[in-house]
Amino acid sequence: MCSDSQGDNQNDSWIFALAILLSSTFVYNSMGTINQQAMDQLHYVTELTDRIRAKSSPEEDGVEDSADFVSFFPDFVWTLRDFSLDLETDGQCITPDEYLENSLKLKKGNKGTENW
């Protein structure tokens, strides 16, 4: 019997989805500031929720009550490490929460690109 230790992307996605459902807290650890690359990597996690939603509901549209759907997922903690930053915008000091909110605001993108 031969075992493939590499796996494939679909198998890895299902293992990750199962780990998320079995966890009480999901810690997303990223290096540096919140930028487009960090958002692109985080987008992978949101794609997994679509996979779980599609497979967990007999209905075509998925789970109708999002409150029921959210109750299956762990708390989300986003840790930023290995950087220092002056927390200010427009010359005003801001809190870490305000920094996060500003970083997650949609910014006008170039034609043909997506903003997450």
From TrEMBL:
Gene3D superfamilies, per the entry: P-loop containing nucleotide triphosphate hydrolases
Pfam families: GBP (PF02263)
Domain GB1/RHD3-type G: from-to ranges: 1-116
This protein's UniProt keywords: GTP-binding, Membrane, Nucleotide-binding, Transmembrane, Transmembrane helix
Transmembrane intervals: 13-31
InterPro entries documented for this protein: G_GB1_RHD3_dom (IPR030386), Guanylate-bd_N (IPR015894), P-loop_NTPase (IPR027417)
Keyword Lipid biosynthesis: no
Family assignment from sequence similarity: Belongs to the TRAFAC class dynamin-like GTPase superfamily. GB1/RHD3 GTPase family.
PANTHER family: GUANYLATE BINDING PROTEIN (PTHR10751)
Protein name: Guanylate-binding protein 1
